[in-house]
Every structure is written in C-alpha cells, then in structure tokens.
Amino acid sequence: MSLQSLSSERPVMAHYPVGASTGWLAADQRAAGEAPEWPVLAGRAKRQFAGAVELAALSEPELPALIEWLVQRPSLPFDFLSLHAPSKARALPEPELVALLAQVSERVDAIVLHPDVIEDHAAWALLGRALVIENMDPRKQDGRTADSLAPHFEQLPEAGLCFDVAHAYAIDPTLAEGHAILDRFGDRLRHLHVSALDAAHHHVALNAQDEERIRPLLERCRDVPWILEAPLA
Q1: Domains in the chain and their CATH numbers?
Q2: Which pTM was predicted?
C-alpha cells in the first residue's frame, strides 16, 4: 500500500511532521551486536519519513559516536530532530552524561529522558528547554502517571513533555490517565511517541485497530511532531 493511500486511511500518516525513531531502524544491528551507524540510520529514516527523526542512543556506549557525529554539524534534512538519551548500560557519572548531551543541546529540538534515569535534577537543568521527560510504561516504577511526573517538572521547570501514547494506554486502557497527563502538562508537550506494545511492553508495529484505540489521545497532540517507535502494520 502506498504512503498516499495510507494517508487517507490512517491518521498517523496524515500528520505532519511524522518521523521514525532509529531505535527500531537499528534493531537488527543491535541484535547482531553491531554499533549503530548514525549517518546510515539517518538516511534510512529519511527514506521512511522526511519530516522528522529521533536518533535513539538507547544504550550509553552508543552515545559518544552520536554526539561526535552531531558536533560535526552534518547537513540533515529534517524539520524536527530529537535525540533519545540512554536508559540502558549506564556507567558515566550523571554530570558527565549531561555534559556530553549538552554539546548538542542547541543542535537538536529535543533530548528525551526517562525520569527513572534522573538522580540529580540540578544536573539535568543544564539542558534547559531541550530536555523533555517521557511518561513510562508499567515496567517502570516512576513517571507512569501525572502525579509521578509532577515532581520532575517541579524541579525542572524548563523541561518539556514527550508523551508516549502506547505507554499511557498500557497504564490505563480507558485513557483516563493519558488525558490526565495532557490536562496537567499539555502546555509542556514537545513531541509524541507512537507505537503499539506487546505483552512484555516492547514497542511493536502499530496497526489500524491500535491506532483507533489511541485516537482520542492523538487528536489532542496535533500541534507537535510524532515519532514512530515501531513501523506501521
């Protein structure tokens, strides 16, 4: 099915900008134990969706090469560029990790952070408005609800929200908690993560039925870029 026909049938494809996370584009490389090749992944992301991309250094050892590449100021064609900070294989002291990310905080539109990674909020304040905090899925003990996100935003008043609709649905399939997050922090919304989740809460391909379930949340987030964390089914 062409992108044009998908656009008429699927609200996600009708949105602009919509883009891909390199988290799923690099899945095969990671499974083979290979380091992500950032220029190659950016090219693959552009071929998927030209409007936006999220460069996802999900494991801390992947981050230095990404920062080094972005510091070189490569010419990238996207209207929206986010960087997903690592949440796995953490080893750097928190100030060093923040300093590394700060090297490109003016080169990207958002730096996505899982709230359970935060130990010292004052350290992360260095990233200012570039920092966006993501709501979490049921595997995490922090950041799953509006109430648990509130202390992070209180201590990081410049930080924005990266709203993950699949996480919100997993926490509460009635969508009430997702609406509560948007009610309280919608003015901080910078961009969206869109996918479905499997039984183990891993991101998987989004089909039309999944999309219809989360449509009420999608409709509230029309003014920000959407990043697909898995392909469309």
Answers
A1: 3-228 (3.20.20)
A2: 0.92
